[in-house]
Predict the structure.
Amino acid sequence: MLFKDTPEQKNLMRFFLWGAVGIAAIGFLFLCFFPLKGFDTWWLLSSGREMVQSRSFLTRDIFTCAIYGKPWMNKYMPFEILAYSIFAVAGYNGLIALRCVLACLALFLGFVPAFVWRKQGSFSRIPLFGVALLIPFIGMILSRRMIIRPELFSLVFFTGFVCLWEMNRNRALRIRFWVAALILQLVWTNFHSGFFMAFPTAVFYILERGVRNKNLASREWLVLPALVLISFFNPYGYHLHKEIIEVMSAPQYGKFIVEWRPLFRQDYPLFHKVVIMGFVLAAISGFILNARNVRFAHVGLLCLLILMTLLSRRHAVFLCLFSPAVILWNYAHWHESRGAKVPWGRIRERVNIGMLWIFLLFFNFMIASGALYKRHILNGPFGFGIDDSLYPRASADFMESAGVQGNILTRYGYGGYLIWRLTPRVRPCVDGRAEPFPIRLLERYWDIYTGEESPEDFCREFDVTIALIDYEDEPLLKHFKEQKAWGLCYLGYREALFLKRTAGNKPILEAFEIPLSLSSSEEVRKRLRLPSPAELAAYSPYLDYRRIVGIRVYLLKTLGIIDSGIMKDQDVLSLMFGEKNPGE
């Protein structure tokens, strides 16, 4: 009985394979449910809030001091309105639900072609083993891009577009295809600039159809100009295409924005590089094994996505979502070409299914327990709400309560969060939008934060009276510490807040300035102390207490408030925690 494929055994193996797919899908859902984070989320929500409350479209900058009042090509207005409307009704968890729906829909559409091919008779069995194995690795790559931004819609539209072409692979493009393709492109154009991906996708699929039927494909080339024309139906017309091309061709963005950098830079996790190259190698191996049935559209589009990913790591999600179609097509054909299996092959199949179950159950446990997050594989720990460990929440709370107003110099990633929390009383110089700002301004900002240029001229030019400096920006910490025209008035959990000695800031400095010396009053020393772990966890559950302690010590030493050569460790602990030990 062990070596015979009886109907009962076939049904049992199919049950275990579908069960593995279900376990993999649950793991993918776990990957979707992590606290809200991402620097772009906040300016998108801010824009949506402004448009919903004012009942008008936002086409000029109202957030920053550097380009205030200047025209802004706000390409993502539908997404901004949608995201803020969901937040207004369901809060941060509503946005997490939106992210979950879009990510799961993109994943589902990525595997739909395999079921379409099965129905069309291209092969008799769907390789469920491959489906279950691909899902967790796609999820790990996709988790880095599962932030609240319009790119999530772009992933859905891209996989949906591929499905549309695959569903019509063996038949002429009828009116239903044209209507579906044009509507999809119209909506895509108004949600995210990734709509450009529809053009090369159409080119490769039409070329493939031309190889099979030249007369048929000659008429189908009209799809491409139709897609281009329908993409002009947006608030900015052809100017939208012009700006996107200009941004894509500007090499400077790769210096400012991490996600635009090449894949093989050292600042990208090695594990993710290995997984992405695993997809590439699996796809290439499939082409070799299934040489007789290789599809031109698959080869062309995969090569384009590999090139895009090597140039900019943000495109890795498109590559990984398209890889299942390529891998499953080739391996399904190769599997059927092998013919009948030998008895040992049946035993190997059962062993492989058992190992797959063990891997998937272990993978799900690692996600739910947070172990994968601790190793920097995922975008966040399993949970809900907002993970503000990367944002200056404490400093924003202080500025709000103290009534701080003015233009603020802060790092690039903080701008959007401060806009969300403090606009219009506090205006950052730049924020995560990047595109509205002149390239020269961004380069100058970069030079200031790398220590190549003093911030003084910049602060005078844009009337900056507030400086919020992160602990990682040591040159700027030391600069503002040494300037008598500036005073330190607050230490957050990872940043220092300086105010310029102006008439407007004078009352706040008189009440809250922290002297940069060991002869601080007891009142000041109280303000330097950290809350207990329980108090901090209640304030922000995703803050790592040990890391916060280390950052606070680093800030105090950089600012000269404590000196490790003068004060003993116990003195430092007393300064920050009073009489209690932080572990108690």
